[in-house]
Amino acid sequence: MLSFLSVRALPALGLAALSLVPPAAGAATLAGNAALTSDYVWRGTTQTQGDFATQAGLKASAANGLYVSAWGSNVEFAPETHASSELDLVAGWSGALAQDWALDANLTHYRYPSSAVDLDWTELGATLTWKSNVWAQLGWSSDALATHHTGTYAQLGARMPLGEAFRLEGAVGHYWLDDAYGQRYSHMQLGGVWAFKAPFELRLTWHDTDRAARDLFPDLAGSRVEAAFQAFF
């Protein structure tokens, strides 16, 4: 996610993404997002030691459902890693399977350009969505969290619109890391979003993890609240 990849670099990322969409796929559309958040929480654990994060991304999509995207954020890991940035590069396909069902299948490469050690890894994932408001996600990697061991992640989530400007969102996830750490853990999150003026939103999310997560990541897991100002364009 960016450490921070300068916002000025985002147009270049968009052009690169567009160049990866096959010409036969038709004209590509470009979308972006940006956020300022009080904490970068990923699968229940903080990636910034509870500090603020600045995040941004671009996505280029073709008419046939193929897409590529890049997303970045600052991070703060153990001091010896010198990791201060994360960049996620994604290639995938998304589209409708039936009237109420949609699928997003992708390959995500997590990169940490500033790290002094090799933290890069790749995950294959898919998300099945029902009526745009309920989803089931599955991810698998042969090198989960750059451990050279397999890991599988699953999440169930839902959102509930409350009028035009408000919505509630919740999810529960489970991460099987038995091969890497001899452990697996669960987490949950519940939040609210206020879309006060398009394309801007305010989000408040409560995160919590089980004891296994606290044992695995004692300084990173547990209960925490995240507040974010975000925009989609």
The tally of strands reads 14
Count of discrete domains:
1
What would CATH call the architecture? Beta Barrel
The major beta sheet can be summarized as: 12 strands, antiparallel, barrel
What would your notes on this structure say?
It is a single chain. With 233 residues, the chain is mainly beta. It has helices at 10-20, 178-181, 211-216, and strands at residues 29-37, 41-42, 45-46, 53-61, 66-74, 85-96, 101-111, 121-130, 134-141, 151-162, 166-177, 183-197, 200-209, 224-232. A hairpin with a 3-residue loop joins strand 10 and strand 11 (166-177). Strands 1-4-5-6-7-8-9-10-11-12-13-14 form a twelve-stranded antiparallel beta barrel. It has a two-stranded antiparallel sheet with strand order 2-3. It contains three helices and 14 strands. The chain has one domain (7-232): monomeric porin ompg (Porin), CATH 2.40.160.40. Residues 1-18 have low confidence and may be disordered.
In short:
It contains 3 helices and 14 strands. Helix content is 9%, strand content 56%. The longest helix has 11 residues, at 10-20.
